[in-house]
Amino acid sequence: MTVTEQETLVRLKPYTAFNGAPEVVPAFNVETAKFVADIGDERLESDSLDQLQRLVRDTLIGARVEVPFVSRRGRRGVMRGFHAGNRDILVTYDDGDKDRFDSHAQVFTVDTPRELIDAIVDRDAQILALADERDKLIAEAYKGGSLRRSGEFFMEALGEDLFEPWHLRK
Fold it and tell me: 3-class DSSP state for residue 78?
């Protein structure tokens, strides 16, 4: 927002409204005795700092934008805003599918070379296939009795279950 009149603003300590949101710099307008913050082109005003912070949070959560990205699986889409209840990032893929990401989900920028994305997607698929193969081998080893939990194996060798409560022992 372009301020046309001369204002006397006292800048306050910047803060982040919630995880994943841009930093907000609230101020106190000496002439109007109101707390203010600029979010994009919108100026928010309030009588109290707490109320201003709630307005900022609600404004940011309600904002609708389009931030293009490429997912870790190589799908293109746009991040559109925040879920009002849990603050997940709302996503729409180019094919129309919708999804949610938490704020820690990894995404590529749209200018990331396709070769790099494809290489990472390929390695992820290889890792998942190897983990699946490993899990099957572990299950087979448990079933055959050659893989055991250390505590059970040790107690069996001692001949007594020391983890059983003393009052339940025979």
Answer: strand
Distance (Å, whole) CA 37 – CA 29 = 10
Please choose, from the candidates 13, 11, 22, 18, the residue with its C-alpha nearest in 3D space to the C-alpha of residue 54.
18
Structure tokens at 72: 């870790």
CB atoms within 10 A of CB 94: 11
Which of these, 105, 78, 110, lies nearest to 93 by C-alpha position? 78
| CA-to-CA separations, 134 to 16, 120, 124, 128, 129, in angstroms, rounded | 43, 21, 15, 10, 9
Contacts of 43 (CB under 8 A, 6+ apart): 1, 36, 37
H or E segment to which residue 93 belongs: strand 89-93
Is-contact 56 37, C-beta < 8 A? yes
Q: Per residue of the chain (170 residues), give pLDDT as tens.
A: 444 455 677 777 666 655 555 667 778 877 888 888 887 777 888 888 888 888 887 777 676 778 899 999 999 999 988 877 787 899 999 999 999 998 889 999 999 999 999 999 999 999 999 999 999 999 999 999 899 888 888 888 887 766 666 666 66
Q: What is the total residue count of the chain?
A: 170
The Cα 150–Cα 147 span in angstroms is 9
